Amino acid sequence: MKILVAIKPVPNPDEKVKIKGDGSGIVLDNIKMVVNPFCEIAVEEALRIREKQTGEVVIMTIGPKASEQQIRTGLAMGADRAVLVEAGTDLDSLAVGKVLAKVVEGEKPDLVLMGKQSVDDDNNQVGQILAAVLGWPQATFASKIEFAADNRKANVTREVDGGLETIEVTLPAVVTTDLRLNEPRYASLPGIMKAKKKEVKVIPLASLGVDTAPRVRVLSYAPPKQRAGGGRVADVPELVAKLKNEAKVL
Amino acid sequence: MADILVVVEQQEGVFKKNTLSAVTAAKVLAGLAGGEVDALVVGNGAGAAADAVAGTGVRKVLLCEGASFAKYLAVTYARAVAQIVKDRGYGAVFAPASTFGKDFMPRLSGLLDAPLASDIVGLEREGGDLRVKRPMYAGNAVGTVALVGSPMLFTVRQTAFDPAPAGGAKAPVEKVAVTVDAGGTTYVSLQETKSERPELTEARVIVSAGRGIKAQENFKMVEDLADTLSAAIGASRAAVDAGWAPNDWQVGQTGKIVAPELYIALGISGAIQHLAGMKDSKVIVAINKDEEAPIFQVADYGLVADLFKAVPELIAELKKLKSA
Ligand SMILES: Cc1cc2nc3c(=O)[nH]c(=O)nc-3n(C[C@H](O)[C@H](O)[C@H](O)COP(=O)(O)OP(=O)(O)OC[C@H]3O[C@@H](n4cnc5c(N)ncnc54)[C@H](O)[C@@H]3O)c2cc1C
Ligand SMILES: Nc1ncnc2c1ncn2[C@@H]1O[C@H](COP(=O)(O)O)[C@@H](O)[C@H]1O
Q1: Preferred mutation among B72, B83, B136 to probe A, highest tally of A CBs within 10 A
Q2: CB-based contact (8 Å) between B11 and chain A?
Q3: pTM strictly above 0.95
Q4: Burial class (CB in 10 A: 0-12, 13-18, 19+), B4
Q5: A177 burial via Cβ count (<10 Å: 0-12, 13-18, 19+)
Q6: Which one of A107, A242, B203, B248 has the fewest CB atoms closer than 10 angstroms to its CB?
Q7: Domain CATH code at residue A239
Q8: What stretch of H or E contains B264?
Q9: Is residue A193 part of a domain?
Q10: What is the arithmetic mean of pLDDT over B241-268?
Q11: Cβ–Cβ gap A117/B254 under 8 Å
């Protein structure tokens, strides 16, 4: 099976981001960029599928040249090769979806795996947009993927508000990953060495002829409302008394 | 501006209350930009849901029924909504930012080539222009966003907009017929999380447990506490990953966003991703044995204690209070 995995570099989610003084953006100077955690899960799933059935795992990313670093992380985990569509500016979800569709049309995979959400913009959009543009089935928030014997269909279990839903999709399809799908491996040292030699094909965005004019523009960023917080109680009786008499929530 | 459509979330004809917050957000837009608000129910045997939304002050309810809509599927719902939006020229579409709205609305965005703002918490007007507020970076930043083109699509964070009052005069219900193809997707099954408790997103009180609870059987203690408070139960990702709690109990950036009157966090450290889902709660209580745990920074009442000692004591105190 040939699998395309879309990955996005994001600021390390364990660090608290700072907003620039003038609200024009996020301070990224000292923050490490990493592979979006949901995309790591997508890479892992692709590798496990390939390990079971043979095939090829190809990474695709749209971003600046520096994205190559996160692409190499995916290659070090075990992906075979990568396509980087080099774009100078951040694109919005519709633009990313349309550009990824071009890559997919060129590569003709059996399956596209991606994260359900990038943890910087928290959009949760691109997989579904890509599926719509391609006219393919979609299965979002996957916690389990099982293929039919002939690989023409897959049953995908999805994490939904009421529990776990299973749908069947005909391949090719777009599947987006949720947290419980797997636990991604770390890149091994030999993996990191091998990754250096793997092919990363760079395609200039302009050469694809896609209209990427922004449709959703982030004009400014502001900090959220701060909570007072930090209050302490000494023991359970004090807690209950305060909840009753001060907070009046009991 | 053109009229506004709210897509109703319902399951097997049962109306989901998160739709009421989407109705409110749609009315805010109507107040800022003009236009009438209609509701759309897609489903089969969903008349009761249409009836429920008819009393929320919308102009009319469109009811799109058919065997192919009996079970929700992103492909069929997005196609049906796309066709109705195109046929009737709606200028904006709202849906709840639940796993329902998050699934089909981006697909609708792709079908209509229409901009979508996810998980919005505010709508404002600046000069002649619409400005949308939405949390980003696990809630550590609130972005001010502009959408270019029409229709504009929005998924609405339930906790950010009060539910529209639902008992008003009934708007007319108009049937619409749409035929769509399921495009290679088939519903198979739903393994529902069954619970007698209030829904997480609607509960007045939530008791939430994390890795500190240590084992599935200890959730019994959490349930006892929840029972004394008529509370819903939530969990951190660590507790869900461990298999102690079902996936749909996860509170956080990538789980459910909640804002109850009272949120009690037991053995939860307070990672950024967890705080993103609960820091708008009115009152936060944290019980954690580590006095440095970041959860204490957002807690109104922090108790440094072993939860296995504190929780039984808390249950006893609450019972005393009840019987007093
Ligand atoms: C992409 C991504 C998305 C994520 N999304 C979410 C999300 O939506 N929701 C979420 O919750 N997390 C999410 N996380 C995970 C998050 O980063 C944390 O790992 C997680 O919230 C930790 O859960 P915890 O607080 O239960 O566990 P821990 O961080 O291990 O904390 C356990 C706490 O229990 C305390 N404790 C232990 N024993 C006792 C005792 N006997 N009595 C009292 N206290 C005790 C400890 O002091 C500690 O503070 C996400 C992570 C990533 C990378
Ligand atoms: N610039 C990008 N390049 C490649 N994949 C992307 C990009 N942006 C988003 N994606 C994919 O889309 C998923 C969902 O992202 P989002 O809709 O932005 O939350 C991510 O997990 C990635 O798999």
Answers
A1: B136
A2: yes
A3: yes
A4: buried
A5: buried
A6: A107
A7: 3.40.50.620
A8: strand B262-266
A9: yes
A10: 97
A11: yes
- The DSSP secondary structure of chain A, one letter per residue, reads -EEEEE--EEE-TTSPPEE-TTSSSEE-TTPPEEE-HHHHHHHHHHHHHHHHH--EEEEEEEE-GGGHHHHHHHHHHT--EEEEEE-SS---HHHHHHHHHHHHHHH--SEEEEES--TTT----HHHHHHHHHT--EEEEEEEEEE-TTSSEEEEEEEETTEEEEEEEESSEEEEE-GGG--PPPPPHHHHHHHTTS-EEEEEGGGG------SEEEEEEEPPPPP----B-SSHHHHHHHHHHTS---
Q: Which of A124, A162, A166 sits opposite B118 (nearest CB)?
A: A124
Could you list the residue range(s) of the whole structural domain that residue A223 is in? 2-245
Beta carbons of A162 and B11 less than 8 Å apart: yes
A45 contacts A39 by C-beta, under 8 angstroms: no
CB pairs under 8 A, 24+ apart, for B283-289?
A: B283/A243, B283/A247, B283/A249, B284/A227, B284/A229, B285/A239, B285/A243, B287/B311, B287/B314, B288/B212, B289/B212
For chain A, how many structural domains are there in total?
1
- Is the pLDDT at A244 greater than 80, yes or no? yes
Q: What does the pLDDT look like over A188-216, one tens digit per residue? A: 999 999 999 999 999 999 999 999 999 99
Confidence check on the interface: ipTM exceeds 0.95, yes or no: yes
Helix pair angle (A93-107, B99-112), 10° resolution: 70
pLDDT category of residue B173 using cuts at 50, 70 and 90: very high
pLDDT in tens, B190-229: 999 998 999 999 999 999 999 999 999 999 999 999 999 9
Q: Over the stretch A152-201, which tens digit does the pLDDT of each residue have?
A: 999 999 999 999 999 999 999 999 999 999 999 999 999 999 999 999 99
Set of chain B residues whose Cβ sits within 8 Å of the Cβ of A233: 301-303
For the CA of B295, the nearest ligand: 1
Residue A217 lies in a domain: yes
The answer to whether residue A250 sits within a structural domain is no
Residue A177 lies in a domain: yes
User: What are the distances in angstroms from CA B269 to CA B78, B256, B298?
Assistant: 39, 17, 11
